[in-house]
Amino acid sequence: MPAIRSNLVRRGIAAAVALPLLALAACSYGSDSKDSSSSKEKVAAGSSKIDGVDTVKIGYFGNLTHATALVGRQEGLFQKALGGTKAEYSIFNAGPSEIEALNSGSIDIGWIGPSPAINGFTKSQGKSLRIIGGSASGGVKLVVNPKKIKSLKDVKGKKIATPQLGNTQDVAFLNWIADQGWKVDAQSGKGDVSVVRTDNKITPDAYKSGSIDGAWVPEPTASKLVAEGGKVLLDEASLWPDKKFVITNIIVSQKFLKEHPKVVEAVLKGSVDTNKWINANPDQAKAAANAQLKVDSGKELPANVLDPAWKSIQITNDPLASTLSTEADHAVKAGLLEKPDLNGIYDLTLLNKVLGAAGESTVADAGLGVK
């Protein structure tokens, strides 16, 4: 998800800020997370700080596509890798606010979708961030009201929600619309399909009220809609080679990466260890993710939402760099982005070091790494 056309940037950001449920709860950019009830998150007595660094500030969304962050925190795997350097966390509702937090120094490292990562990189002329690892693939679906939409062709003329103007799912849906030969003005969302930008938190209520006929959304919102009677009409994974596409990356401030590479390496070790544990213990990991969601939001997901949502997400260390380029191309095609220069957006050096030490396969940057 390049140099965005300036008018779209101003209006897109303004639209996002205007949504009341995107209001940030506890600080300038994100909500400072409550202390977890798990003792695993505590700094072990007598442990040494990495490079003398007191804390590393980590951001993520309260979303199952950020399962690595949820589980790694709940199980104390980040803190274990960091030793005496304390992990502090902030929770975000939208990518733009997390990028602002990274740029301001309010966080150092974050789990985030591809669109805001691309936007943050290109708007800063390649100076603000690097993508340093992958986290998740998949977990995005087109869910519709089966009484109104029975086939893909029936989507024409209907009102379909996406989370935010220019976000990862919005770009994917606009690209799919174009592939059908239909026309939609990307900025207004008006055309052969009405694209209704709606915060994920209120999309299920909008569906129940009938104000939208469906939504192209990530998990667990997709499964929440199914629980309300919606039907999965299309899984976005089916549109990609090998059914894999990046939905969540790990980014870092270039300043923090330069000043504290050993801390960044430790966080990546925690991520790799977490992903290994998730894939080896899927049921326990699912429960851990749900437990952290409850800590962060005060509410856990019911089984009829959690179980199908969890199954549709693939946890991976691979940032799936080639799909990032494709997603950027989709945004250009939709008219939301100027042609981006993504050279240098990746620095997978530390991740590949950690993977090599763990005896796991290294990953590639599709030619977009730091030279």
Walk me through the structure:
By secondary structure, the chain is α/β, with parallel strands linked by helices. It has two domains: 6-138 and 245-357, D-Maltodextrin-Binding Protein, domain 2 (3-Layer(aba) Sandwich); 140-243, Periplasmic binding protein-like II (D-Maltodextrin-Binding Protein, domain 2). Helices cover 40% and strands 17% of the residues. It contains 14 helices and twelve strands. The chain has helices at 6-18, 67-74, 77-82, 95-104, 114-123, 168-179, 203-209, 221-227, 254-259, 261-280, 282-297, 303-311, 321-334, 349-357, and strands spanning 31-32, 55-61, 86-92, 109-112, 129-138, 140-144, 159-162, 194-197, 214-218, 231-235, 246-253, 313-315. The protein has a seven-stranded mixed beta sheet, sandwiched between helices. Strands 8-7-9-6-10 form a five-stranded mixed beta sheet, sandwiched between helices. Strand 7, helix 6 (168-179) and strand 8 form a beta-alpha-beta unit. The longest helix has 20 residues, at 261-280. The chain is globular. Residues 1-28 have low confidence and may be disordered.
Give structural attributes:
371 residues; alpha/beta; D-Maltodextrin-Binding Protein, domain 2; seven-stranded mixed β-sheet; membrane; globular; 14 helices; 12 strands; ATPase-coupled transmembrane transporter activity; disordered N terminus; five-stranded mixed β-sheet
